[in-house]
Each structure stands twice: as C-alpha cells, then as structure tokens.
Amino acid sequence: MPRTSSPVAGVPRSGIRTLMELALRDPDAIRLEVGEPDATTPEHVIAAAAADARAGHTGYSSSTGIAELREALAAHVTARTGRPTHPDEVVVTHGAMHGLAMALQCALAPGEQVLLPDPEFPNWRMAAVAAGLDVGTYPTRAAHGFVPRVEDVERAIGPRTRAIVVCSPNNPTGAVYPRAVLEGICEVARRHDLWVLSDECYDEFTFDDPHVGLTGLDRDDRVLTFFSFSKTHAMTGWRVGYAVVPDPTVRDLMGHLAEATISCPSTIGQRAALAALTGPQDHVTAARDAYRARRDAAVALLAARGIGCVRPAGAFYLMVDVSSATSDSEAFALRLLAERHVAVAPGATFGDGARGMVRVSLAADRDAVLEGLGRLADQVQAWREAAGPVPAPALAPVLASDAEAPTAV
Ligand SMILES: Cc1ncc(COP(=O)(O)O)c(C=O)c1O
C-alpha cells in the first residue's frame, strides 16, 4: 500500500475546533470559542444575491474574481489607504484564509520560513505546514497589550526566513498595532528583503483608534494584504475575501493556483460581496458599536471579579488570564464546558504567549458573553479555593472605565 508523503499530514489540529466539536454536542453550551458574528448577513445582501442568481449569475467567473467586484474593491482600498490600487492588483479569494494560504505557496518555496506572531491564529500555521514551510514566531507580550516590539521581530529572523505575517486588529489577542510599529516592521522587512503578509480581516473593527492598513505603508510592493467579507458583513458562510497583491508574478501565480484548485471563488458569493460593499454600511457601524460595548462590559465584569485580562483595542476577542487557577488552559476550558457549559478557546492552542489564558469571543450575543464570563469567573474562583492560597494573577484587573488606562495591564 502506498503511504502519504504529503506535508499536509503534519498539519497540527486547532484546539478551537476540539472545543467547538465538544460544544456542538452540548445543547446548553454558551458558545464563546469561535469567531462567528451573532448577526446574520444583512437582508439587502441576501436579496441582491437571490436576484442575481435569478438573473443568471450562476456560472464560473475569472479565477481571480469578477471584474465589477475587483474594480469596486480597488476603489475601496484606494479610498481607505490612500494608495492608488488598480483592479489588477486585487485577487478575489475563497475567504481571507484561502488568499493567505495561496500567497504562502506562491511567494515561498518548501523549506523556507515564515514568521508568525505568538500568540498566533492557528490556521496560519496549518496553511504554512501544508505548503511545506518552516514556521518561526516572534513574541507579542500581554504586558505590552500583545503589540510586538520591532526589535523582537527582527531578532526572530533567520537565514531561511522569507516572510512575516502581521495581523492588526489581531486574532486571538484583540491588539491593534500602532502606525510606528507597522512602519518599523515594514522597514525590517525591507532591510532583510522579506515579504509581509498582512491579515486585515478585522480592519473595520477598531474601538479606540482608526485602522492603519499596511497597504498604505508599502513602498516597494512587498506587502500582500488579506481582507474578508466574513466578519465585516457577517458573511462567514459565503466564503468571499480578497487580497491586494502588488507583485504581478505572485498574483498571476495565485490566479493559476485558484484555477487549479477552486476554479474560481463562488460567483454568487461574489455578487453578494458586491452588494455588501456598495450598499448601506449601517450594519458594520452597528456591529462595531456592539462589539465595543461588549468589550467594555466584559472587561468591567472581570475587573469586578478580580480576574486579569488584556483589554482588546479591536477585532472581537478577549484574552482572559486564568493562570491564578491553573497553568493548564486546555484542562480549564474542558472543565468549564463540562461543568458550567461555557465553551472558550484554550490559550495553549495559540502558542506559548497565551499559556495560562483563554480566548473569549465577543461576537456572541451580549447576555451570553456576560453570563459565560460570570461562570468563567466562578470556575476560576472555585479552582483557586480548591488549590488553597495562590499567587497574584499575572495580569492585574483592568478597569474599562479608565479611558487613560494602557491597553494591557
Ligand atoms: C485572523 C484571521 N484570518 C483569517 C480568518 C478567516 O477568514 P475567512 O473566513 O475570510 O477565510 C479568520 C477567521 O476567524 C481570522 O480570525
């Protein structure tokens, strides 16, 4: 019998999925483990997609997307970043993660290295390993609000490093990187001649400061940026994202790879994306306001219960410190689900930088988030009491009402 020799066999399993599958078997579970917006796709988007399907937009499109959508996206990116962007530079993808996975394959060779932030979104590593790449990490620390230090990024670069993944607003940490940090990373990439892969899935969800896109900071076409309709427009199941790829060779290769694998992104999904992009944007503002309000309420609840967290500045995730109860975040998450019916993502699944923490999604319904966090706090308290006197939490509680407070404390 032949045996697989594929690098895909080495793809690690995400701990988020493990918790999700267990939570799906518990009808009473409060689901705070996945990043799924609680809203459904706006009605006008669904109506436009249905009308377009009836009008016959049901065939294949170009492997890099329909021209009308790419034109609208190029205008959108130009307006948002100030960098004139041509429709040819836009590749419509089967979601942002598909774009990033294709870019890794098209820009790097097997055996070369990509650097990820630690904590990391597990799917980046999965895609890199599937492409036969080596994965390195650069640290981002809770004490710095999970914003990387440029010198740490540079220190992580080795002889085989060819690309750096950047994600702001960040999953899993909610960190938003200041412009100076992003400029510093671009400068490091220039000095070492690296690609920068910027995952900007959460570009519409910053709570305190406007989003800074890396496309606007790119001076020599080394930045590839990935966007998604999934979170912005509550369209996770439609599977549409897009990449801005200034390098003509890499974007041509991405087109070839898409042709070889998916033929093209779903045409009806692309029609829906066009409606989402060009129609009213009230749902985006409403979602941002709701996530911000949930962030503030969640941080206040944890502070009142004496539990540390890193106050997120964007996206819709909250890293909660459970290290005063246990250093084993997986055991904590499994027991929280089994005993109190709350599903959260164990920090260990995101890397060393998140050990002793769990990630809570703020994209669930507000009452569910607060009820879930209350039960989480009960669990921490119960474990602390069972273990006897414990050292002070690694992170002091955060006060949401203190507008001047640093992002992380
Ligand atoms: C950082 C990040 N990148 C990519 C994705 C996947 O986005 P899409 O649904 O567009 O593939 C997610 C989804 O959770 C994410 O958090």
Description:
39% of the residues lie in helices and 14% in strands. With 409 residues, it is of the alpha/beta class. It has 2 domains: 7-40 and 283-387, Alpha-Beta Complex (Aspartate Aminotransferase, domain 1); 58-278, 3-Layer(aba) Sandwich (Aspartate Aminotransferase, domain 2), CATH 3.40.640.10. The strands form 3 sheets. A 7-stranded mixed sheet has the order 2-8-7-6-5-3-4, sandwiched between helices. It has a 4-stranded antiparallel sheet with strand order 9-10-13-12. Helix 5 links the parallel strand 3 (113-118) and strand 4. Helix 3 (67-81) packs parallel to helix 9 (267-278). The longest helix has 23 residues, at 282-304. The model is unreliable at 399-409 (pLDDT under 50). Bound molecules: pyridoxal-5'-phosphate. Pyridoxal-5'-phosphate binds next to helix 4. Residues 35, 95-97, 121, 167, 171, 199, 201, 228, 230, 236, 241 line the site of pyridoxal-5'-phosphate.
Helix content: 25-40%
What proportion strand? 5-15%
Biggest sheet: strand arrangement: 2-8-7-6-5-3-4
Give every kind of bound small molecule, once each.
pyridoxal-5'-phosphate
Give the CA-based shape.
globular
What is the fold named in CATH at topology level of the largest domain? Answer: Aspartate Aminotransferase, domain 2
Count of DSSP helices?
12
Mind telling me the C-alpha Rg? 21 Å
Which structural class do the helices and strands define?
A: alpha/beta
Q: Give the ordered list of helices and strands.
A: HEHHEHEHEHEHEEEHHHEEHEEEH
The overall number of domains is 2
Reading off the top of the CATH hierarchy, the class of the largest domain is best stated as Alpha Beta
